[in-house]
Amino acid sequence: MNTLYHYCSTASFHAIVQSHSLWLSSLSLSNDTMEGKLVAQAFTRLAERDSLDPYSVSRLRDAVGILEEIIDGLGFCLSEDGDLLSQWRGYAADATGVSIGFSAEYLNWLSETHKIHNELRFSLQKIEYESSAHESHIEPTYRKIRQFIDAGAFKTPGRRMLLDTRTDDKIKQDNAAIKKAQSQLSLTVLPLFSELFHLKAYAFREEREWRLLSHLVKGGEDHCSHRVVHDRIVPYRKIELAGLERSPITEVILGPKHGTPPRVVEDFLKQNQYAVVRVRGSEASYR
Q1: How far is CA 246 from the centre of its chain?
Q2: Partner of 151 for a Cys bridge, out of 118, 181, 205, 242, CB 3.0 to 4.6 A?
Q3: Alpha-carbon 277 to chain mean position
Q4: What angle do CA 28, 96, 248 make, to 5 degrees?
C-alpha cells in the first residue's frame, strides 16, 4: 500500500500542515470500546479449544488482562481507502473535513529514523480484523504459556500436607519448579503488549485501518501530553514530520461538504513547505 489516508476535520488538517506534526492519541479512549481488549478473548478461545481446564482459562485471562489495565496504545489512524462515505461521516466532521494521503514509505522511514536516534518509538501497523488472524498472531505465545501451565505455573507452592508422602527435598524441588514456571509465564505474557492495539473487531473491517502506534504505561512516569476532546482528557504524543523533502503528503481529498477550492488548498500546502500535492474533491454524493 503506497498511500494511507487520515480522515480529519479541516481544523485538524490545518494544524497538521502548519505544525509539521502528527498527534498519536489514546486508543482506549476512542470510539471503539474494545480497543486493547481482544488479545484476552483470543487466548480464551485457543485455551478452550485446547481443552484447558476452566480454572486455568480464568487465570490465563486474568494474566493477559493485567496488560490491558496498565498499557494504553497511542495511535494515529489511517485507512487504505481515501474516499469512503462511512469514514467521511465518522471521522471528518460529517464530511466537511479532508482525507490526507500520507506516503507509507515516508511513515516507515520516519519510524526507523526515530529508532536510530533513540527518539520516541512508534511503528506503522496494519490492523487485523478476522478472529482467525487474531488467533494466529498469538498462538505461538499461547503454546509457550501452555507449557508453563502444564509445568505448574498456576499451582500454589506449599508445605507438606497430612497425606503427602514427598520428602522435604522433593517438596523444595516442586516449589522451585512452580516458581520457575510462574516467572517464565510472566515473562512470556509481557511482550503481548505489542499485540493489544494490533487487533480490532470484525465489525470495523470496512475501515481497512493502519495506524502509527506507540505504547504508554498508564499511571507511570511514561511521558505524554494531554488535550481536551469533547468530554474527556486524552493522552497523546506529538511526532514531528522531519524530512519534508521526502513528500510525506502525496494527496489530499476534500470531503463531500468541504468548501475550499482545491487551488487554495494546494497553495496552503506549498506555503508550508510541502511539495506539489494533488488536491481533489470526493466522489461521494453526500450532503
Answers
A1: 26
A2: 181
A3: 29
A4: 65
Res. 83 pLDDT band, cuts 50 70 90: very high
pLDDT digits (tens, 9 = 90+) for 162-184: 566 777 777 788 888 899 999 99
Cα–Cα distance for residue pair 12/158, rounded to 1 Å:
59
- The size of the chain, in residues, is 287
**CA of 14: how far to CAs of 20, 110, 140, 265, in Å?**
10, 21, 44, 10
Residue showing cell 514456571: 181
Place of cell 468541504: 258
β-bridge mates for residue 108, sequence order: none
What 3 state SS string does 20-74 have?
A: CEEEEEECCCCCCCCCCCHHHHHHHHHHHHCCCCHHHHHHHHHHHHHHHHHEEEE
For the chain, how long is the longest CA-to-CA vector? 87
All cell numbers assigned to 7: 480522515
Distance CA(151)–CA(171), nearest Å, equals 15
pTM for this predicted structure: 0.90
Environment class of residue 49 by beta-carbon count within 10 Å: exposed (0-12), middle (13-18) or buried (19+)? exposed
In the block, residue with C-alpha cell 507509507: 104
Look up residue 212 and give its three cell numbers: 502509527
Residues in CB range of 232: below 8 A, 6 or more apart? 29
Q: Dihedral angle at the C-alpha atoms of 50, 56, 62, 67, nearest 10 degrees? A: -60
b/e for 183-218, b at 16 or more Cβ within 10 A? ebbeebbeebbbbbbbbbbeebeebbbbbbbbbbee
**How large a percentage of the chain has pLDDT more than 90?**
78
Grid cell 516507515 in the structure block, residue: 108
C-alpha cell at 89: 461521516
